[in-house]
Amino acid sequence: MSDDTHAEIAHAEQVQARFARTAALIAERERGRREALREKLRRFVPLSGEESVLDSGAGTGALAFALAPLVREVVALDLVPELLDLGRQAAAEFPNVTFVEGDATALPFERDSFDLAGCHRTLHHIARPELAVSELARVTRLGGRVLIIDQIASADPLAALELDRFERVRDPSHTRLLPDVDICSLLDANGLVLRASHVEQEPRELDSYLDLAGCEGPARERALESAPSQLVAAVGWYLAAKPVP
Ligand SMILES: C[S@@+](CC[C@H](N)C(=O)[O-])C[C@H]1O[C@@H](n2cnc3c(N)ncnc32)[C@H](O)[C@@H]1O
């Protein structure tokens, strides 16, 4: 087995351990934010109500449940069984949402399977985000759309490194935030055409942000020491079309 494969397996194990531990908190936060996310999506993504949608790296179903009443069906995929179990419990309210275990960098779906394929706050937990974006593009049908919502990095490389260091102390499964230019380049490299984007500022309360990642003991102390004085995340929203040739 190559060193790269070892590193990818080790990272996947880190993701599983971190998110299994905090699954209940993630589900609670998802419920609390569902309506607000739905309203933002309603404004950002034109929908007919007939779409088949993929939420890749769904956790307990944030994007899936926000979109469920607005589309025909949603498949929510994640690596972590504990998150999927909680998602399935909540799906009783949304019979058009199905949870599937899988890897966002090697999706278990045919080419052209979905009208809309997206991920919400997931790319920065993936060691090779370029694979996750190319998989979103592959499973989207011609004429369909790809949606990416994620915290983005500062355009200043030093500020970006510093924030990633803090984020990794808080949560070792954090890989790195991509800057706006990289997300746009990944969309472009996969033949996707950007149709809309914006960045929103999201103020965060430090203690609850550390709690959400299960950051305790010495790691919490280090995170408190290295936290930026103003914790405001820049969250990028990107909607891109997969054009018909
Ligand atoms: C910060 S959480 C966001 C979850 C959800 N999208 C939300 O907004 O609440 C990141 C998610 O990415 C998932 N994840 C990380 N790497 C993954 C991979 N390679 N394949 C599938 N899911 C992955 C984690 O299990 C976790 O659920």
What does this structure look like?
There is one protein chain. The protein is of the alpha/beta class and 245 residues long. It has one domain (3-155, 173-207, 234-241): Rossmann fold (3-Layer(aba) Sandwich). The protein has 9 helices and 8 strands. The protein has helices spanning 3-21, 23-44, 62-67, 81-90, 129-139, 157-170, 180-189, 206-212, 217-226, and strands spanning 52-56, 73-78, 97-101, 114-120, 140-153, 178-179, 193-203, 232-241. Strands 1, 2, 3, 4, 5, 6, 7 and 8 form an 8-stranded mixed beta sheet that branches. Helix 3 (62-67) links the parallel strand 1 (52-56) and strand 2. Helix 2 packs across helix 4 (81-90) and helix 6 (157-170) packs antiparallel against helix 9 (217-226). The chain binds S-adenosylmethionine (SAM). S-adenosylmethionine binds at residues 15, 19, 26, 30, 57-59, 62-63, 78-80, 83, 103-105, 120-122, 125-126.
Number of domains: 1
**Between the first and last Cα atoms, what is the distance in angstroms?**
39 Å
- Name of the CATH class: Alpha Beta
Q: What CATH architecture label applies?
A: 3-Layer(aba) Sandwich
Poorly predicted regions are none
Q: Could you state the CATH homologous superfamily?
A: Vaccinia Virus protein VP39
Question: How large is the radius of gyration?
Answer: 17 Å
Shape annotation: globular
Q: Quaternary arrangement of the chains shown?
A: single chain
